[in-house]
Write a structure and sequence with these properties.
homotetramer, 353 residues, alpha+beta, five-stranded antiparallel sheet
C-alpha cells in the first residue's frame, strides 16, 4: 500500500535509482494558492548534504508539477508531481547486487517479491520521503488557510545518549532548531550532538535518535474513535518513516510508571474557557484532540549503512563480509525533522479539511 | 472509523451501556470450523472480575453469532456477532452526566459530536475491546489452519516501576503468564506487581504498565512498503486500544542510544537457512517480516478512573470536584494482554490470509 | 465486500435463514432525531406479502437498534441494527440442498466458497435488502435535515411488455404509486400490470420489469470526477440489488440513437438562475449533479424461482428436474421500488453529508 | 476520487491541456515482463486521428515509465507512468473560458470547485482515459500469465440507428473489428456506420452508440456478494468512461419483458462439466462469474461538442450562442472500444490477481 489518507490521499511512487520519485495528492481542496518557494524550502530541509554533519548524496530535488494546478491555484483535481533522480551513482551499488545488507530491507524485499531493486535500496530507500515532504507542504498550505493558529513544529530531542530536557520543550523555537546543524534547539546539546556525529563519522559508525513534535493550534474534536484515533493515525504515519522504531504521545512510555493521580489532566477554567492544567495526555483524549498542544515523539534507529566491516551472506547463502563504500549519513535524525512535520501536516489535513 | 483491516475487515459497534456491543468480520475465509469454546475462553481472559486484582464490572460476555456460520463452519459471508450488555448499572453514572472526567474522553466526544453517551463512557469505554477479542480469536483460528507454527504470545512486562528483564523475554511461556494474576510470567515480579496493585486499590489510585508481545512462526515477506508497513499496521492497531500511549518494536526507543554496529542484525547461515544472529530489528526490516520473532511493546497509562477526589469542571464550565463512586480497576494492563494478542492476530490475518 | 460508502459506510450481514440480518451504519452524523416509525414504514414497503400480487414469505421485520442512538438521537457512534429471521421454513428447501437452481447464485457460491448456505439462498437472498432499507431510511432522515427540498421518488415503470410513458414521468406522484398494488402511478397501466402478474402466478412463471427513480432537490456540485462519478456510484449500488440487470441515467441507452444536437441540454436563464431547457443528461454532467432532477432506471430480470419444471443438475453432476415447491413472488419489481429509493438515499448521503 | 480498485489500484491524474496525464498502478504483481510494444499498440488504438472517421487532436501518446519496473520486469513497487500533452492548442479554447458548453462538465465543475480548468475540458476531458489504457494493458499482461484462456473482446455494436445482430455476437472476431474503421466486426454494418459518421461530420453534428464486450475464459467464482458484485464493479467502471449513459449485462434491459421460463439458464452437463445451455445471465449469477462468457454493453451519448450553433449562457449568466471552432470527433464510440476492454481488464485483475 503506497497510499496514505482517507479524504486527502497521497499515493507515492519511485525508487532510489529509478527515473524519478513522486506522488499524487488527491482530495486537495480547490482555490488554494500554491506557494512553490515554500515547498522548495521544505525540500531543501529534507535534502542530504545540507551541512557538514549530514553529507551524502547531492540531489537538487526540483519538483515538477504535472496536474491539478492552474495559474498557481489548485483546481480540486489530483496534484501529481515528480522529482527526477539525478545523482544516481548506481555503480556504487554493484557489489551489493548479490548480498543482503544487515538491517536493510534487501532480504525482506527479496522474500516478499522474489525480485528486488538493489540499486540504492530501491523502494525501501529514504528517498521515498521526498514526495511526502512535497505533499505535506501542500497540506500545510491548505491547513493554514483554514486554521491560522496551527503550528507544527518538530526538533531533534535526542541523538545517542544526548537529549534535551522535556521540561524545556514548550519553550523551544523553530528559529533555534533551524539554526542548529542537527536541528536541536538547545544550543549546548546541539554542540554535543554535532561532536558525537563527527566522532561516529570518523569511526565509520552511525547513531540513532529521537524527534519530538509539538502541534499548537489544533482545535478540539479532531480524530475518530476506536480504529481511527488521532494518535493511531499519527503513529501509523510516523512508524512508516524509514528507520522509525517507536512512537509515543503525551507522556508515552513514562506513563507505565505513573499513577492515575499523577497522570490525569484536571479540567480547569482559564479565561472563561475549559482547558486542562497539565498535558500528560499530549493533547489527545480517547483518540480525539482536546485543544491542548499535541505532543509526540518518534524514535529512529542508527542508519544501518556503516563503513565498518559487517558479517552477512550472499543471495546464494555464502557467508561474506560487507565493507560499504557508498555514501552514507551517520545520523538521519536531523533530516527526519522536516519529514515528521510534513507527515503530521498530511495526517491532520486528512482529518480536518 | 470503526473498521480495521483491508481484506479481513472488522467493523465494531456498541457502547458501554447500550443494548449490546458487537462486530462484523468481513473477508473471513470459508470452510473454517469455528471453535466456539476457544473464543469463549478468550472472552473470559479479557473480562473484568477474573481475579482479586482486577475486580469491577461483571459481565457474562456471551457471544451470539448472527451470520456467516452454518453448522459450525464459516461460509465466507460476513460473520456478525453481538454481546449483550447485562450488568449496566447506569445509575452509577448519573452524577457524571454533566461533568467531564479528567483524562477520559468525555470532553473530546462532547466537542466532536455535540452530544455524548455519558453512561459508562459510551463508545469510548474499554468495553469496545470485547468484539476485538471475538474477531481476533476468529482470526487466530483461520491463521492456525494456514500456519501451524504461528504463536502469538503477550504478557505483562511492566507495572509501575516493576518490570521483567528483557534478557529473559524469549524464555517466557504462556503457562507461566496465565498462572499469574497479573499475567506476568516472572513469578517474583508477578508477586511484586500484585502487591503494588493491592496498594493502589487501597490508595484509591491506579497505575500504568507495559505489555510485550512476541510472535513466533510468522513467515518472512509479510507487510507492505511505505504506508502499510507491518509495524505501522501493528502500531496503529495497538495505539487504538484504550489507554495506550506508546508503541515500539524490536529495540524501540532504546535504538536512539545505539550505534549502527550494535543495532544491526548480521545475516548468518543456520541449518542451511539464512537468518540473523541477533534480533534488534524485532523481526521486521523495511516494514516486512524477516522470519525472526516479531517483538513489540505497548505502553498503557494508568486508568483515569480513580477514587481520589479530582478537580474538574461541569459541562456548564463550573469548577467542581469529582469523587468517583463507580466500579473501577486499578490496573488495566493484565486485561490488555489478550486484547494485544487478539488484535495482533487480526492484523496478521489481514496481511496473510 | 459487504460494505458500501466512503464516509457514510453501511456494512450488512445475514442470510435468509440464519438467526438475523442486519447492518452497521458508520459515519452517521450526531444529533439526528431518529423517526423509528418512518423506518418501520419503509420496512413494510419492502416486505413481501403486502398485497395479493406479492405474496410469499411473511416476516414482521422488526428492527432492533443496538448502538449509536441515545434517547432517540444519534450520537455519532456506529448505528448497528438487526432484524430477526422468524418465518424460516428451512424444510421447504431441503430438496434444494444438493442441486443448483437455474439462474440463482447456488452454483457460483459453491464455486467461489466451496460451501454454500443452501437455505433459501443464504447470503444471495433478497432478504439482504432489508438492512439496506433501514440504512437508507436513516440516511434520508439525515439528508432531510440538510436539504429540505430533497425528494427521492421511485416507481414501477415497466412490467413485462407494459410500460408507462416517459413523457408523463415528471408528473407522477408518490401518492399514485403507493395507491397501486404494483407501485405504478399510471392507474391504467397499473391495472394491466396487476393482471399480467396474476396470469403469471397462474402459469407458475415470473416476469421482469423496470424501476424509474427521480430525485428532485439535489443541489449542483455533487459527485466526483473520473472513478467516483455520481452515476457510477448510483449504478454500482443499483446493480447490486438482487436481480438487477441494467442501469441507465438520463436518456440512457436511447442516447445511442441520438444526435448531439438532440441530446445536448442548452443552458438558459430562468428566474435569474442558470438552468437547462431540457434534461437529457438526467441531472448529471461529467459525473456531477447540475441541479436538474436526477433520473435513472434499473432493469430487473424475472425472479428465477418459478413453479414450472426446470432442467438442472445436482451438485454431483447428475441431470435432474427441479419443481420448486417453496413460496415465490412472480414479480419482484414492486418491492424493488423502496429498495431503489433507500439505496439512492444512501449513495447521496455518502456524497453530501 | 481518482482511484479505482481495491487490491490492484489505479490512481490517475492530469488534465487535457496540463503538462501531462498519467497514473500510478499499485498492487501490481512482481516478476511480470512488461511488453512495452503491446502497451504502445493499445495507446494507438485509443488515440484520436486513427482513421478518417475519428480525426481530431493528434497526440503521440508516448508513455514514460517512472517506477516499479527494473530491466523490463515489474518489481512489485507501484508503477507510475506519464504521457506528456504535446498538441495543446489552448488558444482554440480561449472563447470557452467564460461560457458553459452544453452537456459538457463546465458548469458542474464550476459549481463543485468554484474554479475550473477550461482548457479543453480540463480533468473532464476524454484525455483522462489514456492512463486507463496503459494500466488496463498492464493488467492484461498480468492476467494473461495467470489465465492463458482469458480473452477480453469489445466491439462497436451500434452507432445511431445501425446495430449488429445480437444473435451474431458470439461469432464476431477481433480481426474483423480491428479491420473496420468504426471497430464494427459486421462488414456491412460497418460500412453503414462509417457513412453515417461522414454524414454527421458534414452536418456538424455527432452521434451516440453502444460498445459490447465479451469476456471468454474467466473462471467461475470471481466477484463478491452484495456490494462488490462483478457486474457492479464492471458497471461502475464503465459508467465512469466519458459520455457513458448506461450499462447492462446478459440480456440486460430486455429482461424486463421476459418471463422466468425464458430468461433462466438451465444447468446441463457438457463434456462431464457443469455448464448452462443458454447464457441470458451474461456469465454472472448472484454477482459471481459462472464460467460462461461474460457479456455486457455500454451506451454512449453523442459527443456534446458539435459545430452547429447552440444556445448557452456565460459564467455571468448572459445568454449567448456557442459556435465551436475546436477539433472534434463526431462519434467517440470506436475509440471507446479499447477503453472498455482495458478497463474490463483492470476490474478483472483487481478481483483475480
Amino acid at each position: 500500500m503506497n497510499t496514505i489518507g482517507e479524504r486527502l490521499r497521497l499515493t507515492t511512487f519511485g525508487e532510489s535509482h529509478g527515473p524519478a520519485v513522486g506522488g499524487v495528492l488527491d482530495g486537495y481542496p480547490s482555490g488554494i494558492r500554491i506557494d512553490f518557494d515554500y515547498i522548495a524550502d521544505e525540500m531543501r530541509r529534507r535534502r542530504p548534504g545540507q551541512s557538514a554533519v549530514t553529507t551524502g548524496r547531492m540531489e537538487r530535488d526540483e519538483v515538477e508539477y504535472l496536474s491539478g494546478i492552474m495559474d498557481g491555484v489548485s483546481t480540486g483535481a489530483p496534484i501529481a508531481f515528480i522529482i527526477r533522480n539525478t545523482d544516481c551513482a548506481t555503480s556504487d551499488y554493484d557489489e551489493l547486487k548479490d548480498l543482503f545488507r544487515p538491517s536493510h530491507a534487501d532480504y525482506t524485499y527479496q522474500m516478499k517479491y522474489g525480485i528486488r531493486d538493489w540499486r540504492g535500496g530501491g523502494r525501501s530507500s529514504a528517498r521515498v520521503t521526498a514526495p511526502i515532504c512535497v505533499a505535506g507542504a501542500l497540506a500545510r498550505l491548505a491547513l493554514e488557510k483554514r486554521l491560522s493558529d496551527l503550528d507544527i513544529y518538530a526538533f531533534t530531542s535526542q541523538i545517542g545518549g544526548i537529549s534535551t530536557d522535556p521540561e524545556d520543550e514548550m519553550t523551544f523555537s523553530r528559529e533555534d532548531s533551524e539554526a542548529s546543524s542537527v536541528r536541536c534547539p538547545d544550543a549546548e546539546k546541539s554542540a554535543e550532538m554535532e561532536d558525537l556525529i563527527w566522532q561516529l563519522r570518523r569511526d565509520g559508525d552511525s547513531i540513532g535518535g529521537i524527534v519530538t513534535c509539538i502541534i499548537r493550534g489544533c482545535p478540539a474534536g479532531i480524530g475518530e474513535p476506536v480504529f481511527g484515533k488521532l494518535h493511531s493515525r499519527l503513529g501509523a504515519a510516523m512508524l512508516g518513516i524509514n528507520a522509525a522504531k517507536g512512537f509515543e504521545y503525551g507522556d508515552g512510555f513514562a506513563c507505565a510508571s505513573m499513577r492515575g493521580s499523577e497522570c490525569n489532566d484536571p479540567f480547569v477554567i482559564e479565561d472563561g474557557q475549559i482547558t486542562t492544567s497539565s498535558n500528560h495526555s499530549g493533547g489527545i483524549q480517547g483518540g480525539i484532540s482536546n485543544g491542548q498542544p499535541i505532543r509526540f515523539r518518534v524514535a529512529f534507529k542508527p542508519t544501518p549503512t556503516i563503513a565498518l566491516p559487517q558479517q552477512t551472506v550472499t543471495a546464494d547463502g555464502i557467508p561474506t563480509t560487507l565493507e560499504a563504500a557508498g555514501r552514507h549519513d551517520p545520523c538521519v535524525v536531523p533530516r527526519a525533522v522536516p519529514i515528521v512535520e510534513n507527515l503530521a501536516a498530511l495526517v491532520l489535513a486528512d482529518l480536518i479539511l
